[in-house]
Design goal:
- It is a single chain.
- By secondary structure, this protein is of the alpha+beta class.
- It has 1 helix and 10 strands.
- The strands form 3 sheets. Strands 2-10-9-5-6 form a 5-stranded mixed sheet, with no helix packed on it. Strands 1-4-7 form a 3-stranded antiparallel sheet, with no helix packed on it. It has a two-stranded antiparallel sheet with strand order 3-8.
Length: about 140
């Protein structure tokens, strides 16, 4: 007689445990973005005539909060001192909604560098690849 209540309790505990991870996972999921970055693997060239490098930003969808842009991974802490922001809005992703700039110091060595542009609404972040070519005087050909 005492085995039946113990067995029933164990079965109930096993059932509750099997549902617990799913319930816990759904409670901690983050909201899904209604926007996404169109990654064109942007490329730019910098020389003594062209600085900063400009990287157009393509976004598809709708965003209700301003999007902040940050360039990371380029040499000499290349950055955009403007702290660029894309105002709340929407886009079909076919035209740029803004640009990020990589301002380089004059002593940046010649070469090709890979970096990323991080775009965030404060909750969700996406990134896109950047390629920056640093060339000698007048070598970008613009």
């Amino acid at each position: 007689m005492t085995r039946a209540p113990i067995r029933t309790g164990l079965v109930l505990a096993a059932l509750l445990a099997s549902f617990w991870p799913a319930a816990a996972a759904s409670a901690h999921t983050t909201r899904r973005a209604s926007w996404h970055v169109i990654d064109h693997h942007e490329r730019a060239c910098v020389d003594d005539n062209v600085n900063p490098a400009l990287f157009p930003v393509y976004i598809a969808g709708t965003w209700s909060h301003a999007l902040r842009l940050r360039v990371v991974g380029l040499p000499n802490n290349a950055d955009d001192a403007r702290n660029p922001v894309i105002a709340a809005g929407s886009s079909n992703g076919r035209a740029p909604v803004g640009d990020a700039r990589a301002l380089l110091r004059a002593d940046t060595p010649t070469g090709t560098y890979e970096g990323r542009l991080v775009i965030t609404d404060g909750t969700i972040s996406e990134h896109m690849s950047l390629e920056l070519r640093v060339k000698g005087p007048g070598r970008c050909g613009y």
